[in-house]
Recover the amino acids of this structure.
């Protein structure tokens, strides 16, 4: 799955405009001498949104783009590396000069000398001059450039782009000093800054005082918001019949939930998708059938006996068997070859189901996405989830959506149907072409009505205006709808008749094609549905797992002797677990000696009952040592810490327990 | 214009210099008088101070450049170590070879020694000048550096003068007793008439200077009350001039119709007033806005930040933890808090608003406790919840108090405003007001008057 390509496409627009911006200043300066913006450093403030994990990719592609098309002098700095101005300058110099050296080997001794002397921007200035001179000479030597272009080259030198990846995290003093220093050299060194800002443009004003920000000529660029980003990734990867691998509704809900509730990171979403794919192919042996159609058919022919048995145990297949005639049922349960044949047929059905499902889903979404209050969801993913989860037409939301559709004004209806027709054109199955034909037929009839029903459309206009007015109250809406319904039975004009036909047609389409995937036989082959595993893996809870490990060591160690019923403390458990369980019974301050006593009691209870008291003393030093080790492990895990409030006591850092 | 005379310097250069430095003739004359003839010893150190954009560096550097005096101009911001300063001075006076002789981490005495050595080889025929711009930064450097530079003439036994430029008065510099007092010299702010004179200098080549001068007059009429910074005014003048000329280019008005032009430009200037000093719109974007939309979109209006769902709640919880006293938590966040006596709850001595006192630090535990009571659904304490806290810190919406490497019980502060929180809580349908101690106190205080 080539998600990077998709992401690149999405970012292309903003990145291109950025590249344009960086190319521009050289020209602007020469043409607009009057402006005297000499000392202003052109600066692009790139608004990236709070999804910080995704930024790395954007910056990588930005760097590549700039290096390919604008200038080789691109530096990107991270706040972590630049705690002081000196370090920041050093970083910039290292990246620039290091790159220069690798390009041009003659200058190696030269730059080495520079690095030995001083790490300043003036040194960079010298280096830049020599490099550009060299470059120009080479260009003149290599190709006989046209005089006009030569002039152009002479005029605008290649800019030096400094990218501040995480603007917010930079120390503002460092930034101010760096900008002040750079502004002194703008005449010789054409700097361009790019600030990667996660929050809002006002962050610049919060960090830089006026005396510094007046040295910058800031332009703001907005990248695509992460929700739009997600929507397009979702469109391309999940709502697509091309990929045989599918997600069940629960899994989608988990992934989207992580995205919306936790991080806004598309990259993490894609990683989750990849993980679920791995998990699916790993855990489901029948996933051999989850591939492109012809390959799937081939592998269905050569299914092993074991896999055939597995197919028979699939719930969806069992359901399918139950619907067959008794004779057929017997054959399906006994004859392997027959199962394979049926399996091929079912796989074919599954593929056609998918091919028809997505166009109709998109049509329904385009019809309902403009309705007030979005009864079927604002995003197509919500619609998709509810479609594959249950019978859509049995839900209340669907009813209300259809009712709203039934009172759509004519021009809205025509526009919606047009967009549906567009979507269907790209679908290339026979049935979809059929549907398209019918749809176009409806469209034609609607248009033919144009002349006839001019006064009707005005009547509808009133209705829709009324709708707008009552949008706030669903109850009222329902009432008016019912009224409308009763009135319509009395007197229907040709448009209304046609409209109800169209809606019925759409309803029939939904009932035919948008059946839940769970009812499709063999859906387990393609659909990954263990959302619990996914949640456990992606949305980890370190604290609960540590607590689980300490209270129920069997959970992780799988040692039979550790199996205990809750509430008791087994002495076979690791020392740490015993100490942990004992400490749960204490208050905020724990007396170490009492704790040790309790520990020894537990330990000796396990040992043979007949140990006399003398031997106890002998073992004590060993137990003592083990106890001390366990306590220090507890301290390391952050459950207790030493305290000065009371001697021989430690403080508990967690609360709760008994 | 009073002719400036100074023996030892070519007269026509002086005249052109005076022409290039409008409204600074007196300062120029005084400086030249101070410097004396090129071969005479000058005062060891001069301290020039004045507000931003009063022409301090410009005047000094123009004198140096036009009269071709030997000088080293150093910006102290650039000097992250004193070694860099020495390096720049030496290479300006004696060439880069001399500067290369400096050891790796040069001390002051290294510098003095090397300077002496070099100046004995090539003694000064003219006074050498060391110009230190933004001298206030020197205070952060080595404490002995400033006193030594003030007496550099004595130390190196050479005809050298140190000129310090700063925006701060000398009283804030004075290192300790016994330090050499430099000559203090103040550059006053420009008056309105002077600003007009200077701004009229960069008139557009395709229009008459008179028109530009009248434009500047209009501009200053609007902005002079809020902004006297020459640089900012210049920026504004450039930004809005094309708008001013629009009727002229369309042929709707002539250059003499000043009133008509004023009517045209005035609303735009009023609007530009809102963004003085902000520089949030680049000049290019500013011009484009006039073509596309009648009202420029002010960028600070975009202050809304989209956050993940739980991050919003975390931020709300952080805000409440920062501004509510900890003892009121029981009242606000516990379902069955029991009866808490009102007098106890609302302490009289907390007269001042919590907002005036600023956010208070709170431990992580308290944040999480409030978070769980604000969020209505059950949330598992997953790793991503905790990583959201640290990402809020990197976005500087929260700030961590104390050491970064504090593992047990880190403390945070909320660094966003009430408006921001109210906007967020509107998104997630939480009534922050119900939880705000300040709000309760307000109600209680106003009740007697209602």
């Amino acid at each position: 799955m080539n998600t990077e390509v998709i992401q690149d496409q999405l970012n292309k627009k903003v990145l291109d405009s950025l590249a344009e911006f960086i190319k521009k200043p050289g020209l602007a300066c020469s043409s607009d001498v009057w402006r005297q913006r000499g000392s202003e450093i052109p600066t692009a403030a790139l608004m990236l949104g709070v999804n910080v994990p995704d930024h790395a990719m954007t910056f990588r592609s930005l760097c590549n783009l700039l290096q390919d098309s604008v200038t080789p002098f691109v530096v990107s700095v991270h706040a972590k590396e630049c705690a002081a101005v000196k370090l920041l300058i050093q970083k910039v110099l290292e990246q620039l000069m290091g790159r220069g050296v690798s390009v041009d080997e003659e200058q190696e001794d030269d730059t080495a000398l520079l690095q030995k002397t001083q790490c300043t921007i003036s040194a960079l200035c010298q280096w830049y001059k020599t490099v550009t001179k060299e470059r120009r000479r080479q260009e003149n030597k290599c190709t006989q450039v046209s005089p006009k272009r030569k002039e152009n080259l002479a005029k605008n030198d290649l800019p030096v782009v400094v990218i501040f990846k995480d603007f917010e995290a930079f120390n503002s003093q460092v930034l101010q000093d760096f900008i002040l220093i750079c502004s002194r050299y703008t005449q010789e060194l054409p700097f361009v800054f790019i600030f990667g800002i996660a929050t809002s443009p006002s962050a610049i004003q919060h960090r830089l005082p006026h005396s510094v920000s007046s040295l910058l000529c800031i332009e703001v660029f907005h990248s695509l918001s992460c929700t739009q980003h997600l929507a397009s990734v979702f469109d391309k990867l999940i709502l697509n019949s091309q990929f045989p691998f599918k997600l069940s509704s629960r899994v989608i809900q988990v992934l989207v939930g992580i995205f919306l509730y936790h991080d806004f990171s598309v990259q993490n979403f894609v990683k989750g998708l990849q993980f679920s794919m791995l998990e699916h192919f790993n855990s489901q042996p029948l996933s051999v059938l989850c591939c492109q159609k012809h390959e799937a058919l081939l592998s269905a022919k050569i299914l092993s006996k074991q896999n055939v048995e597995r197919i028979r145990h699939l719930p969806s297949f069992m359901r399918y068997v139950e619907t067959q005639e008794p004779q057929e049922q017997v054959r399906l349960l006994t004859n392997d070859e027959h199962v394979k044949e049926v399996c091929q047929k079912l796989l074919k059905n599954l593929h056609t189901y998918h091919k028809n499902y997505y166009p109709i889903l998109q049509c329904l979404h385009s019809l309902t996405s403009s309705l007030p209050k979005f009864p079927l969801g604002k995003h197509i993913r919500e619609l998709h989830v509810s479609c594959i989860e249950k019978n859509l037409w049995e839900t209340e939301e669907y009813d209300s959506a259809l009712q709203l559709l039934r009172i759509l004004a004519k021009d809205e209806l025509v526009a919606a149907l047009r967009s549906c027709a567009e979507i269907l054109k790209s679908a290339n199955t026979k049935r979809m072409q059929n549907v398209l034909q019918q749809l176009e037929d409806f469209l034609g009839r609607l248009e033919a009505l144009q002349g006839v029903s001019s006064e009707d459309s005005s009547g509808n206009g009133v209705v829709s205006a009324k709708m707008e007015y009552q949008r706030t109250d669903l109850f009222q809406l329902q009432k008016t709808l019912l009224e409308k319904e009763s009135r319509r039975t009395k007197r229907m004009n040709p448009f209304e008749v046609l409209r109800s036909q169209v809606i019925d047609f759409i309803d029939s389409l939904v009932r035919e094609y948008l059946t839940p995937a769970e009812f499709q036989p063999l859906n387990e082959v393609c659909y990954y549905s263990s959302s619990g595993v996914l949640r456990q893996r992606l949305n980890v809870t370190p604290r609960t797992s540590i607590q689980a490990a300490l209270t129920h060591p069997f959970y992780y160690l799988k040692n039979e002797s550790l199996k205990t019923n809750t509430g008791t403390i087994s002495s076979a458990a690791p020392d740490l677990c015993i100490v942990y369980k004992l400490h749960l019974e204490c208050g905020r301050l724990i007396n170490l000696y009492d704790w040790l006593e309790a520990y020894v009691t537990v330990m000796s209870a396990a040992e043979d009952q007949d140990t006399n008291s003398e031997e106890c003393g002998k073992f004590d030093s060993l137990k003592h040592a083990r106890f001390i080790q366990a306590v220090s492990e507890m301290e390391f895990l952050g459950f207790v810490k030493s305290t000065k409030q009371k001697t021989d006591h430690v403080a508990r850092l967690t609360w709760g327990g008994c | 214009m009073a002719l400036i005379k100074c023996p030892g310097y070519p007269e026509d250069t002086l005249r052109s210099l005076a022409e290039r430095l409008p409204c600074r003739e007196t300062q120029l004359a005084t400086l030249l008088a101070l410097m004396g003839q090129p071969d005479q010893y000058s005062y060891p150190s001069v301290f020039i101070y004045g507000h931003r954009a009063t022409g301090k560096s410009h005047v000094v550097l123009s004198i140096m450049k036009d009269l071709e005096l030997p000088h080293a101009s150093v910006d102290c911001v650039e000097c992250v170590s004193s070694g860099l300063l020495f390096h720049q001075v030496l290479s300006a006076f004696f060439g880069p070879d001399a500067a290369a002789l400096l050891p790796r981490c040069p001390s002051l005495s290294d510098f003095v020694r090397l300077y002496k050595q070099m100046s004995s080889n090539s003694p000064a025929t003219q006074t050498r000048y060391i110009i230190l711009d933004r001298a206030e930064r020197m205070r952060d450097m080595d404490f002995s550096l400033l006193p030594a530079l003030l007496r550099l003439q004595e130390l190196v036994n050479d005809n050298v003068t140190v000129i310090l430029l700063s925006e701060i008065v000398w009283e804030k510099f004075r290192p300790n007793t016994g330090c050499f007092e430099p000559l203090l010299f103040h550059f006053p702010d420009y008056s309105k008439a002077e600003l007009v004179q200077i701004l009229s200098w960069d008139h557009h080549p395709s229009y008459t200077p008179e028109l530009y001068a009248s434009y500047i007059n209009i501009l200053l009429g609007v902005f002079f009350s809020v902004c006297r910074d020459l640089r900012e005014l210049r920026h504004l003048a450039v930004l809005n001039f094309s708008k001013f000329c629009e009727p002229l280019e369309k042929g709707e008005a002539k250059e003499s119709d000043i009133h008509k032009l004023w009517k045209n430009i005035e609303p735009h200037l009023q609007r530009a007033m809102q963004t003085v000093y902000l520089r949030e719109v680049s000049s290019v974007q500013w011009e484009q806005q006039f073509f596309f939309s009648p009202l420029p979109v002010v960028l600070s209006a975009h202050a809304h930040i989209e956050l993940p769902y739980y991050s919003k709640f975390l931020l709300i919880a952080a805000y409440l933890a920062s501004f509510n006293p900890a003892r009121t938590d029981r009242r606000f966040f516990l379902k069955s808090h029991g009866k808490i006596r009102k007098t106890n709850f609302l302490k009289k001595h907390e007269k001042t608003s919590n907002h005036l006192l600023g956010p208070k630090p709170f431990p992580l535990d308290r944040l999480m406790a409030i978070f769980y009571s604000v969020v209505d659904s059950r949330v598992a304490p997953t790793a991503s919840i905790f990583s959201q806290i640290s990402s809020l810190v990197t976005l500087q919406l929260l700030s961590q108090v104390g050491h970064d490497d504090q593992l047990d019980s880190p403390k945070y502060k909320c660094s966003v405003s009430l408006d921001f929180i109210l906007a967020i809580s509107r998104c997630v349908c939480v009534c922050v007001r119900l939880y705000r101690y300040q709000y309760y106190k307000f109600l209680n205080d106003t009740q007697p008057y209602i």
Notes: The longest strand of chain B covers residues 160-166. The first helix of chain B runs from residue 11 to 20.
